[in-house]
Write a structure and sequence with these properties.
extended; mainly alpha
Length: 162
């Protein structure tokens, strides 16, 4: 890698090198540690709320710990879609960065944001067509990942490791 970067430096003109130095001089330093801490706490708060929703379903609707996952995920996605519609989740995302995007609520936000963005094109081609562009790839890779994990687990069981 170093050889390539040295060759790139040798191939640049004096004007390009001066511009790169000027750019580095004026580049805004990103507060990486601060952003990581904010993302950690925002993501943790979202997960805390999800755990509270799980306990709500267990306590009031007699779900078990094994069966409470699906209604909890559906509720969290619904909450994020509702907050996105009111413009609140975007502010949470601005503050928390990846902390708001990584939990399942980020998926709900991304789906509904695409629908809101393309609503002027109509309900079928605009909202419906663009809403599921993201959902399709997530579902595809989710199913493929689940298949690979199940295959590995099956092979480990066959080989007697598990």
């Amino acid at each position: 890698m170093r050889m390539e970067s040295k060759q790139k430096k040798q191939n640049t003109t004096l004007q390009q090198r001066n511009y790169q130095q000027l750019q580095q001089k004026h580049e805004i330093k990103r507060p990486v540690l601060k952003n990581c801490i904010k993302a950690f706490f925002v993501g943790g708060l979202i997960c805390f709320i999800g755990q509270a929703v799980s306990y709500f379903y267990i306590y009031f609707f007699n779900f078990t710990e094994q069966s409470v996952g699906n209604p909890t995920v559906a509720t969290m996605v619904f909450f994020s879609m509702l907050l996105t519609g009111f413009g609140v989740y975007d502010r949470i995302g601005q503050f928390g960065g990846a902390g708001s995007a990584v939990p399942v609520t980020g998926f709900g936000n991304a789906v509904i944001s695409a629908a809101i963005e393309h609503r002027t094109e109509g309900f079928v081609l605009g909202v419906g067509g663009n809403m599921f562009k993201l959902a399709g790839s997530v579902i595809l890779f989710g199913v493929f990942s689940a298949f690979v994990v199940a295959l590995v687990k099956t092979l480990l069981v066959i080989w007697g490791v598990l």
